[in-house]
């Protein structure tokens, strides 16, 4: 019952894709069909989830045996354990709301049916990823979400920036895939399988290399520091794409992979320290970069990146279940933040710069409400959704035996979260309007209102709902000093007040010269500027020099032939005293010969 | 010395004089060099065949091989000169003049 319902739920998702062969693809109700399909899949998947919460029984469904390659058996198998059972309903719920939102947002797009088909294909590959029981199936889902991300970021393909952003996403993800394939190869060599059960049962000793590979894969897919520039550039895609892929589902795939391998990671202290430091660097760096951005979608993208860093930090302190809880709760309010920004953008006639917004507090009350509630949930205000995961993470990090510097950076990043959230609210909503007088501000569409309303209720209640209903996993730290318990709240309130004071104080001042710190933050730490120009130039010029200059010109031409000829010419000019009178030389030779023959022959 | 030998010896001498005394073309010198080689070859072959000294019949053939090599060298020098000047007048070879 449990397994068949889950399979039905997953299968239902693929129906609209199959029906695109027939004529329903051509008429204009296809998007509505897709949205309804996803809502049915969501409701169907709630039943197995509730059964799972009641009984705690995990399932593995192994359907179809594909092939055997010598000693490796590849089959289609679904792992329905705590992680996938909790993630599937959350992802389907968020996707349902986003589909409804994009019915309003992409209403005037002529290729809206293709858009929905792409979104649905993305959702299917994401489901394949989270329910995979072996690395091969996970890799299929992994690559699938990468490809759909490429297609969706470059949706408005007439725009050069969109094409380069899509290409950037693919390239950075590919670098991460190298790590993934290295891990797959290591597992194949050393544990003879790609199935999770066998890997965890065998518990290999030296797991440094595969876990490094998986960490690289997570760095690529989840935009950690080093492979992060694709995420802000991915905001070139339409807002539903940003809401679905780059906040809730695709970018958490990297974190999900590391969570899946937590039995191996809890035995390897080195990798845990690496993960912790990587996550701490990411969360602080992206939070600094978010402070001075002017595009509302980029600020939210950096916020996503910072929260992803926080999830990686959580894995680094050996708390995979908390990281997973943060994934689920983060999906709600981040998707809602993106949808609110989409509502603002559409209302101001495609204006994305927060310096040209303002005064929307009274003009768009519903969007204002949801934006403020989403920001509060993001920063971890007590008893909203974000509190249940974020506060627990900070508490656990504070009371665990971990790297103090990483902890400090995480705390600073938490306060910076409040700062840039205040910045968004201040510039977009408060003050006097800075947009053009002829406006089309309208948020009266039922699609928009219903979808945001659903996520709003989720943002407020989902945290407590999920936390109270899951079975106990790792025990959170129960006792700690009061000041430690209030650390997260204190730095958040500090961030809020600081940002508000600064904004109000400097609101009417003229920006004289950009300080170097401002430039560092605005240009994303100079990372894209340096990394997109210097290594390719170095690589290409080195290869050109080594191929044409070194091999051909120097070794084949210059070393022996030309050097010998030059040497000979120089020394012969230096040494000889001749004048080149060849005929005289020949003549003297002849006369000498004749004379000697006459002399030596005639005396006989 | 028999008449044939004197004949061939005379051919050799004429070619030698032609090699060492020529007017302006380097090509005539090379041609006389070839003539020298030819007369030497005929002389050697005749001597070997007359004295039935079969073991030495390698010598004219090897002489011919080396003559071919030197002819190639000489021709390449000629081509180099001709590339620079267009004609092979020997009075052009005055690079070493001070």
UniProtKB/TrEMBL annotation, chain A:
Record's subcellular location: Mitochondrion inner membrane
EC top class named in words: translocase
Residues in NADH-Ubiquinone oxidoreductase (complex I) chain 5 N-terminal domain copies: 66-116
GO BP annotation list: ATP synthesis coupled electron transport
Topology class, membrane: Multi-pass membrane protein
MF (Gene Ontology): NADH dehydrogenase (ubiquinone) activity
Family, similarity comment: Belongs to the complex I subunit 5 family.
Protein name: NADH-ubiquinone oxidoreductase chain 5
TrEMBL record, chain B:
Main location: mitochondrion
Lineage: Eukaryota, Metazoa, Chordata, Craniata, Vertebrata
UniProt-listed GO biological process terms: ATP synthesis coupled electron transport
Catalytic activity: a ubiquinone + NADH + 5 H(+)(in) = a ubiquinol + NAD(+) + 4 H(+)(out)
Coiled coil feature spans: none
A GO CC term attached to the entry: respiratory chain complex I
Statement: the UniProt record of this protein carries the keyword ATP-binding: no
Protein name: NADH-ubiquinone oxidoreductase chain 4L
InterPro entries named among the record's database cross-references: NADH_UbQ_OxRdtase_chain4L/K, NUOK/Mnh_C1-like
Entry GO MF terms: NADH dehydrogenase (ubiquinone) activity; oxidoreductase activity, acting on NAD(P)H
Subcellular location per the Swiss-Prot or TrEMBL entry: Mitochondrion inner membrane
Gene label: ND4L
Source organism superkingdom: Eukaryota
Organism: Equus caballus
Entry keyword annotation includes Glycoprotein: no
